[in-house]
């Protein structure tokens, strides 16, 4: 039983750390990117990744583990194992993830835009900005997540104003579903 709890917690960590907004599929009949756009897109991705990527992934997974209320119940030894496993497997799959970005960027940016991105990120200034963008990711993510309790608080207040429920009960339900929210807030919705 403990194995399965640890296993599913590990899956949650790995997917939670890398979760993003669901992509919008290309419009039917949308132009396919040119070979040059694909090449420039791949080069852009290569230039914007750095040796700090692994540490940024680890930091994101550690942050996810620290923020996940269900992980607080996991013994420290198992928690460390899950963080290491989720980090290792995510890093192993990173090349595949980046390969899947190539056609997305190639469709999103024009050839001229991709060329400008490659030209910029192939400079010392561009490489420095790429490195700093990656190393700042965990802190930037934590800053964004720090406002989530306010979002959930305001959401509970508005939902209950519309549907006639008790906002404190809604907040408690959100907490039970993993949304780590304070019991109440004086913020206006």
Give a brief description.
By secondary structure, this protein is mainly α. The protein has nine helices and no strands.
What spatial form do the alpha-carbon principal axes imply?
extended
**Rounded radius of gyration (Å):** 21 Å
Strand content: under 5%
Main sheet properties: none
C-alpha end-to-end distance: 43 Å
Low-confidence stretches: 1-8, 179-189
Average the pLDDT over all residues and give the rounded result. Answer: 79
**Order of helices and strands, N to C?**
HHHHHHHHH
Number of strands: 0
The portion of residues assigned to helices is over 70%
Query: Helical stretch count?
Result: 9
Class based on secondary structure composition and strand pairing: mainly alpha
Q: If you had to describe this structure to a student in words, what would you say it looks like?
A:
This protein is mostly helical and 189 residues long. The protein has 9 helices and no strands. The protein has helices at residues 2-18, 35-48, 53-67, 76-108, 111-121, 124-135, 137-145, 148-163, 167-176. Residues 1-8 and 179-189 have low confidence and may be disordered.
Quickly list its features.
disordered C terminus, mainly alpha, disordered N terminus, 189 residues, single chain
């Amino acid at each position: 039983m403990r194995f399965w709890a640890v296993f599913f917690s590990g899956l949650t960590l790995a997917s939670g750390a890398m979760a993003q907004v669901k992509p919008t599929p290309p419009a039917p009949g949308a132009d396919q990117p040119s070979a040059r756009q694909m090449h420039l897109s791949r080069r852009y991705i290569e230039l914007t990744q750095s040796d700090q990527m692994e540490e940024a992934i680890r930091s994101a997974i550690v942050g996810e583990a620290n923020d996940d209320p269900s992980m607080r119940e996991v013994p420290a030894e198992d928690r460390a194992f899950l963080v290491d496993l989720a980090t290792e497997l995510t890093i192993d799959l990173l090349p595949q993830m980046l390969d899947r970005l190539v056609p997305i960027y190639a469709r999103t940016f024009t050839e001229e835009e991709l060329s400008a991105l490659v030209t910029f990120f192939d400079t010392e200034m561009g490489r420095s900005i790429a490195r700093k963008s990656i190393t700042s990711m965990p802190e930037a993510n934590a800053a964004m997540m720090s406002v989530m309790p306010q979002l959930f608080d305001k959401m509970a207040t508005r939902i209950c104003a519309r549907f006639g429920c008790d906002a404190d009960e809604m907040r408690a339900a959100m907490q039970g579903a993993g949304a780590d929210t304070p019991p109440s807030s004086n913020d206006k919705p």
